[in-house]
Amino acid sequence: MTLAYLGLLLISIAGMVVLDWKFKLAFYRDLKVSAVTLVLGVAMFTAWDDMGIRQGIFFRGSGQWMTGLQLFPEYPIEELFFLILLNYLCLNILEFAKRVRGKK
Question: Can you give the pTM of this predicted structure?
Answer without folding.
Answer: 0.90
